């Protein structure tokens, strides 16, 4: 729980609102992320979150309870790595109000304090200024660049590799 938002697991009963907001936010999301666009895609999305290799969450403003955005911790690897990869996106009309900065910060704390991870990573396209700013604001450092790294909407896209490690 943060001062303005709470972070909770995404649930089956979020489907209708999640799909509505994802559709309304497509202009904001493209070409950076692709969220579920149908009931079938939403069910497959939920099924990914086994709480072992991936945790799916939503960011909810404390006043109102709507969904301001989503944050996932994906590709969790244990053993010598102890790391996860963040995915996040704001939903219109809640973008630009500071909710995602707080929500992603809560997800990082959850990854470190509750999941016991040592490292969280974020893969960000070079032109994605809002996401680069968010990562910098939260103290992520740029560690590298991977050409044609992730296929989004049918195209292999270059990504900068950002990360934050738990030094406590
Ligand atoms: C990246 C993304 C999640 C950022 O979401 P957002 O809702 O704009 O994030 P925030 O509102 O927390 O921060 C945006 C700005 O609002 C500011 N802000 C406005 N009101 C604020 C408030 N009350 N409190 C704190 N900050 C506030 C922040 O300081 C920040 O300013 P800056 O970027 O000019 O430095 C969003 O742009 C998005 O969904 N992009 C498409 C999907 C995407 O790219 N995902 C990441 C893939 S790597």
UniProtKB/TrEMBL annotation:
GO terms for molecular function: protein-N-terminal-alanine acetyltransferase activity. Keywords: Acyltransferase, Transferase. Residues 5-167 form the N-acetyltransferase domain. InterPro entries: Acyl_CoA_acyltransferase, GNAT_dom, N-acetyltransferase. PROSITE patterns: GNAT. Belongs to the acetyltransferase family. RimJ subfamily. This is GNAT family N-acetyltransferase.
